[in-house]
Amino acid sequence: MSRMLFSMLVAIAFGVGAADWPSYRGPGANGVGDGSPPVAWNADASAGEVRNVLWKMAIPGLSHSSPIVWGSRLYVTTAVSAKGNAPLKIGLYGAGDSADDVGEQSWVVYCLDKRTGKEVWKQTAHRGAPKVKRHTKATHDNTTLATDGKRLVTFLGSEGLYAYSMDGKLLWKKDLGVMDMTPFDDRTLSWGFASSPTLFEDTVLVQNDSKKDSFAAAFDAKDGRELWRVPRGEVSVGSWGSPGVIRAAGRTQVVLNGYPWIVSYDFKTGKELWRMRSGGDVPVPTPFLADGLIYVANAHGRKAPLYAIRPDASGDISLAEGATTSSGVVWAQERNGSYLQTPVVYEGIAYASTSQGIFKAYDAKTGEKYYERRLGEGTTGFTSSPVAAGGHVYVTSEEGETYVVKHGRTFEQAAKNAMGETVLSTPAISEGVLYFHTRGHVVAVGR
Asked: DSSP characters for 241-257?
């Protein structure tokens, strides 16, 4: 299947244009974009001549929100501390401490012209002291907007769920309570919130796997009316993933990454369709559909698997100890290691990266491993999820170095590019342009 045809089919399935990137990781959260972005660039003026940077727009505050694109507009959110610069600790460490950042914040939605970076409008969704603390590597604004071209939705966790018109008018908002995500084995920690909303067929889907009163819910995008809600306390004691909407095998389902269970729900009713025992006990990656299979990864703890699941699965499809297939699981890699990053499937190959930059490629249909290589020197962390377009996969480290890997069964690094700032969010792709949200800017990288 050609790259252009693949992009068109995905866009049609999710009711978007081929150039739109409407939510976290684009249409269907699959991470594959249109056009051919540059392979080489430099966005760091201190490292030499700036190359292949179309524009750079300053965005105040501290946020891991990824940019989204609809038509000629780009949207992103941020949290601005009244005290000025907020602390951020990047790198490879295991401490679960909360950041010293509990003062007043302003949560702001920005709309930019994607061609020039100029501000079109901005709206402050909420102002006040955050209701929960956050992890030292997180922010008070970790989530990404979602749009269907009719409205914008942002989910700020304890600070609420908000819907705007495309020109910035507040349509509705809902207070869904206090949401504080923690690992299952230490409920005294406070890590904040990170699950982005999903918007599909006039329905907003949210996942709240927090310390208490966990739930998944669907809301009418037009007015915020609740359509269904299911408790999650039995199946997930903590997740940072976002809902994956899967339309395949004659049905539409919502797949939620969690621990100790990954669970699928009927899109219309919230009825459980299937479940399987999870591996990693701090699930972050978002489930997505590619090449007819549902891919779910998680890590931390005893296992760090990547699963390829049949979309027509039903009941309990958990793997027996030592097994790599079941009635609903086509293949599994128990030591894949994707912790913070969601893998990407591109033209028949599944690419995944670990937090240490161990980059792996698998046959997407069988799970056969093609290669495993390290990006960088192993001294920096990787949080931003890989994305693909134009025959390349783009993987960005927390220190703002983007590694460009040529698509194929053998490893070939095509370039390493400097952004000049820390990057923990995932870039958007539209019409051959990469849009990065760095520590202090949105940067458009294009030819």
From this structure: ---EEEEETTEEEEEE-
pLDDT tens-digit map of 59-111 = 999 999 999 999 999 999 999 999 989 999 999 999 999 999 999 999 999 99
Ranges of H-type helices in 260-394: none
Q: How many residues does the chain have?
A: 447
Token pair recorded at residue 268: 């219309």
CA distances from 16 to 13, 37, 70, 148, 384 (A): 8, 20, 8, 7, 24
The β-bridge partners of 306 are: 297, 333
Element (DSSP H or E) covering residue 12: helix 3-13
Residue 299 to residue 241: CA distance in whole angstroms: 12
Angle at 41 between CA 26 and CA 370, to 5 degrees: 60
What's this model's pTM, rounded to 2 decimal places?
A: 0.96
Give the closest residue to 106 by CA, choosing from 122, 117, 121. Answer: 122
Question: What domains lie within the chain, and their CATH numbers?
Answer: 3-445 (2.130.10.10)
Encode pLDDT of 327-369 as tens digits: 999 999 999 999 999 999 999 999 999 999 999 999 999 999 9
Sheet hosting strand 244-248, strand order edge to edge: 244-248, 251-256, 261-266, 272-277, 315-316
- Amino acid (one-letter) located at 32: V
